[in-house]
Amino acid sequence: MTPHLEKSAKNLFVAIGLERDHNRRKDPDWLARKMEDPESVFLPVRLSKVLVVDGETPSPVLLSPRQLASRKQADSAIFLGHWNGRACFAIDLDEKEFGAFEGAGKFRDLRAVAPLLSRDEGAILAYAQALAYWHRRNRFCGVCGAPNQIREGGHSLSCTSSRCQAAHFPRTDPAIIVLVTCNGKCLLGRQQVWVPGMYSVLAGFVEPGESVEGAVAREIFEEAGVRVTNVRYHSSQPWPFPCSLMLGFTAEAENEAITLGDAELEDARWFSRPELRQAVQSGSVKLPTPVSISFRLIEEWLEDD
User: How many other C-beta atoms lie within 10 A of the C-beta of residue 67?
Assistant: First the structure.
């Protein structure tokens, strides 16, 4: 692996051991056989929740074709690929279908349960959740409004209107997330909606016609009034809440002057390593969830002493 690939592989929700089988998606007969294959497994998801075997060491509930409550669910299944040697599909449940599977496990928020899962389990559930979200948001053609129909195992949608026939593909929103340093300190900010005391690195979405490096410089200046140089890529992380790709960077500030600008942050501060360690230990500062790349960026900086 290259250094960047190794770093990204350490981020949660990154699917490493999955064979996506791109060419198999285009074979409807093969997909139909796999949906009936007793060795195939189905992962039920709904909004931000996933079905897991509850307990101290939870794991995803893997449904067999026989356990599906209706043929409708199988017909709308999304092919994820081969996982642990078995064809794996996601099924997106509606509220009425929740009860049919509650006996098999418990629906829990993926962000809450992810730290308790294996890396591969968290990744496959994140993948399933992201594609299910895209399907929920694209039931109808964005060009003409006609219903869409599943194609390529759920990895594309086709407009059913004979006049339109537009093809639609999953979209991922690129976002940058940056650890900014200056004089041995790192810049952290907080939003008003966060729990009291939580601080994190700064982040924002990449705008149309913008490079990711340009987005880093723009977002840091807009949010904190800080000019940055030496922007360097660190790693990336799929973030299925709902469908982003977090592109992690480090950057250096020209100086420590902070001017909050776009009302995104209610506070931004510089922390030295001893100050941040002490603040976290005392509980006056809380860091982001360990499942996030923001936590990894801060953690690596703290360890690089």
Answer: 15
Residue 119, number of CB atoms within 10 A of its CB: 17
- Amino acid 100: pLDDT: 66
Q: What is the pLDDT of residues 49-67, one digit of tens each?
A: 898 987 778 899 998 888 8
CA 8 → CA 65, 214, 233, 247, 293, distances in Å?
34, 21, 11, 10, 9
Amino acid (one-letter) located at 207: E
User: What are residue 92's DSSP bridge partners?
Assistant: 45
Q: Are 228 and 180 in contact (CB under 8 A)?
A: yes
In angstroms, the Cα distances linking 107 to 31, 42, 46 are: 27, 15, 8
**Residue 102: what pLDDT?**
65
Q: Are strands 244-253 and 228-239 parallel, antiparallel or unpaired?
A: antiparallel
Distance, CA of 270 to CA of 180 (rounded, Å): 9
Q: Is the dihedral angle over the CA atoms 261, 263, 265, 269 positive or is it negative?
A: positive
> Nearest-CA neighbor of 41 among 109, 6, 90?
90
Residue-range domains of the chain with CATH:
13-137 (3.90.79), 140-170 (no CATH), 173-303 (3.90.79.10)
Q: Model confidence over 241-268: pLDDT tens digits?
A: 889 999 999 999 999 999 998 788 999 9
Number of residues that this document lists for the chain: 305
Beta pairing partners, 198 = 286
pLDDT of residue 98: 60
